[in-house]
From TrEMBL:
Pathway: Pyrimidine metabolism; UMP biosynthesis via de novo pathway; UMP from orotate: step 2/2. This is Orotidine-5'-phosphate decarboxylase. It comes from Compostimonas suwonensis. The lineage of its organism: Bacteria, Bacillati, Actinomycetota, Actinomycetes, Micrococcales. NCBIfam families: pyrF_sub2. PANTHER family: OROTIDINE 5'-PHOSPHATE DECARBOXYLASE (PTHR43375).
Length: 294
């Protein structure tokens, strides 16, 4: 399966559906922390990051369906880091892996459009299959990347309730959505994404998702994990499993009805196996995630 040139007829949600059916829901994070590079016997340089990323791609290829490079680690090395990231992304996509660039971009609409072009435009050097974005400047500010994602068969994951504890105060804060309703910030973002997805109702899984951490009690964020959705399932990129403490056996309990399109994202808990144990760790984790949520 190659996803190098997605036909516009095939949305990101459709490709996600295929990846789920074939490989399950594990997303292997490509997070070349300095300590991991050391443990792997690699230099903390662009060349070391490139080698690290390519080894993860190798281990994930044919076993897991999705990888998520954490852009921050590559940016540390400036232009050489970006060149390494380009190679890692290209190798992953050529191997048939879906690539979610964890770039967490956001800005006013005219600038965020360029971020979308960087990560989602077919033919761009950093072309990925999906990217993470921030709605701090309003979900409406993301209109251009949303349009591009739709026309190019790409995906977006909007930060809604993140796994880090420091975010709770802002994300649980109440906002007035209209003259009759109030909602938490997290819930308001999820509702806007859901509305967007209802206009793309032809796929089983939508192309625009949200980031909701597995470390949270979602009821405290006002997030509905009980009602069944009528439209396409909203993909939920779910960090917080593994090193941050959440267990995949609890996924159903954490996400409730949202579980049907949860992507279990794990980085350090898999990468910590080191280069010799990595392939086995990816296989084992893929299996555990399959057993827990299919
Ligand atoms: O809410 C969020 C959003 C993104 N992340 C990112 O996911 C990985 C998690 O790494 P682990 O080693 O599995 O903890 C990392 O790249 C974070 O920046 C997140 O953790 N929480």
């Amino acid at each position: 399966m190659s996803n190098a040139a997605p036909s516009p007829a095939m949305s990101f949600g459709d490709r996600l559906t295929q990846a789920f059916a074939r490989y399950g829901r594990l997303c292997v994070g490509i997070d070349p922390h300095a300590y991991l590079l050391r443990e792997w016997g690699l230099e903390d340089s662009a060349a070391g990051l490139r080698e690290f990323g390519l080894r993860v791609v190798d281990a994930a290829s044919g076993v897991a369906g999705i990888v998520k490079p954490q852009v921050a680690f590559f940016e540390r090395h400036g232009s050489a880091g970006y060149a390494a990231l380009e190679d890692v992304i290209a190798a992953a996509r050529a191997a048939g892996l879906l690539v979610i660039a964890d770039a967490k971009r956001g800005d006013i609409g005219t600038s965020v459009e360029a971020y979308g072009q960087t990560w989602l435009e077919p033919g761009s050097p950093l072309e990925s299959d999906a990217m993470t974005v921030s709605a701090f400047q309003g979900v409406g500010s993301l209109a251009k990347p949303l349009d591009l994602a739709r026309s190019a068969g790409k995906g977006l994951f909007v930060l809604a309730a993140t796994s880090n504890p420091e975010a709770a105060a802002i994300q649980k804060a109440t906002v007035r959505v209209d003259s009759t309703r109030e909602s938490t910030v997290a819930r308001a973002i999820i509702d806007e994404v859901t509305t967007w997805n209802h206009t793309e109702a032809r796929s089983a899984i939508a192309s625009v998702g949200v980031v909701i951490g597995a470390t949270l009690d979602l009821t405290e964020f006002g997030i509905d994990t009980v009602s069944g959705s009528t439209g396409p399932a909203m993909p939920v990129l779910a960090p917080g499993f593994g090193q941050q403490g959440a267990r995949v056996t609890q996924a159903q309990e954490i996400y409730g009805t949202l579980t049907r399109a949860v992507i279990v994202s794990e980085s350090r808990s898999v990468l910590g196996a080191g280069p010799s144990g990595l392939a086995e760790a990816v296989e084992r984790r893929t299996q555990e995630v399959r057993e827990a949520i299919g």
